[in-house]
């Protein structure tokens, strides 16, 4: 079934092709498809000019002169195309609009589910049942946070069928719901009224961006969809979770699962999108970057607003302090050479080893990762209990150490590669070769940026970086945290 972006693509195509065309006569080959009855339908349209084509949800609204509107729904397989008059029609051609310029606007539909209603302009919302109860369009102007908070708060329904219900939000279909729930890290069966405000905001932003991106990419090509120009949609190349059963999650690496929710095939990441009994109101922002990209400067900006920052490096040191199981495991894996005479970890020796050997780094992460995760979880529980609205998890190896699923959103601080190299050489007094080794021991910056929800470009001044952080805080709904707390 065409989804909203596909229908919008059809609308734009038709506007270009028949935007101001005049209809001379109409042939109806399948009478059940039109209303009023076929003869009346033909008579009303003869001589009319298409003035505009609008869309509401998945309905096309052809606006004619004399206050006449034709409401058209493509249902499963409906298609419009424009051909020179006289071309033979097919057995699936059900309605032909003959145009004054020797062209035909033809409607074909292999399943005959599509419908066309002619009515007085302005009465469509009253007379067409699907339009009557339709929720707002998923755009920044029409879909507000306040509206979403209200409708979410009233429903215990699982979020997936809740979003598919066109009376809540117009035009969301199966693919876009799976995609936006993955982007927002919400389990498809999470009850709507348990979703905290920060996630409603994320979901809203993701829905709006995703639909816009899909429209810009001419919609998906799933099923039999093609645009009024016969172009294939490009959007399916960008799908993050839909149709990726068994493949690793782009964010955390866990295999994507496919299940059924409300009878619909549903894709999700069991790690990023855990079903939560009590999600709590605390949003956790993961903050990461590459070496010397300036992540700590961004971390300091949050601290200046007295937003709590969990420092993964500090925790990483704690879990390998003398006497811990972490340190014992390091000793048994990498040898006594990693332990100093006073019983503490020889960081320099371990650092040299793991920066030159990716397998060693993976082994080290395998030891410290679960310990860090546990310690972070404990700290987060404390913040959630105290209903702290926003906590930053500052973690240089958020992705490498498989911690991406711990957070609600990921911010990556980046600079161009050349700037990164220069800053690292200057900061740590390293020769070029060694600096490059350190950079390549981590996941590439480009890859981190690809997995980010928000990217902070830190190549310019501190002020420019700060402006980006402030913008994010405002957009994510944390603007009030900055009042009177700036240094
Ligand atoms: Zn995941």
TrEMBL record:
Domain Formamidopyrimidine-DNA glycosylase catalytic intervals: 2-114
CDD domains reported in the protein's UniProt record: DPCK, EcFpg-like_N
Subcellular location: Cytoplasm
Pathway involvement of the protein, from the record: Cofactor biosynthesis; coenzyme A biosynthesis; CoA from (R)-pantothenate: step 5/5
Residue intervals of the FPG-type domain: 240-274
EC number(s) per entry: 3.2.2.23, 4.2.99.18, 2.7.1.24
Residues at the active site: 2 (schiff-base intermediate with dna), 3 (proton donor), 58 (proton donor), 264 (proton donor)
Residues reported in the UniProt entry to bind ATP: 292-297
Swiss-Prot/TrEMBL GO biological process terms: base-excision repair; coenzyme A biosynthetic process
Cofactors that this protein relies on: Zn(2+)
The entry's keywords: ATP-binding, Coenzyme A biosynthesis, Cytoplasm, DNA damage, DNA repair, DNA-binding, Glycosidase, Hydrolase, Kinase, Lyase, Metal-binding, Multifunctional enzyme, Nucleotide-binding, Transferase, Zinc, Zinc-finger
Residues that hold DNA according to the record: 92, 111
Reactions this protein catalyses: 3'-dephospho-CoA + ATP = ADP + CoA + H(+); 2'-deoxyribonucleotide-(2'-deoxyribose 5'-phosphate)-2'-deoxyribonucleotide-DNA = a 3'-end 2'-deoxyribonucleotide-(2,3-dehydro-2,3-deoxyribose 5'-phosphate)-DNA + a 5'-end 5'-phospho-2'-deoxyribonucleoside-DNA + H(+); Hydrolysis of DNA containing ring-opened 7-methylguanine residues, releasing 2,6-diamino-4-hydroxy-5-(N-methyl)formamidopyrimidine
An annotated GO cellular component: cytoplasm
Family: Belongs to the CoaE family. Belongs to the FPG family.
Subunit structure: Monomer.
Purpose of the protein: Involved in base excision repair of DNA damaged by oxidation or by mutagenic agents. Acts as DNA glycosylase that recognizes and removes damaged bases. Has a preference for oxidized purines, such as 7,8-dihydro-8-oxoguanine (8-oxoG). Has AP (apurinic/apyrimidinic) lyase activity and introduces nicks in the DNA strand. Cleaves the DNA backbone by beta-delta elimination to generate a single-strand break at the site of the removed base with both 3'- and 5'-phosphates.
Protein name: Multifunctional fusion protein
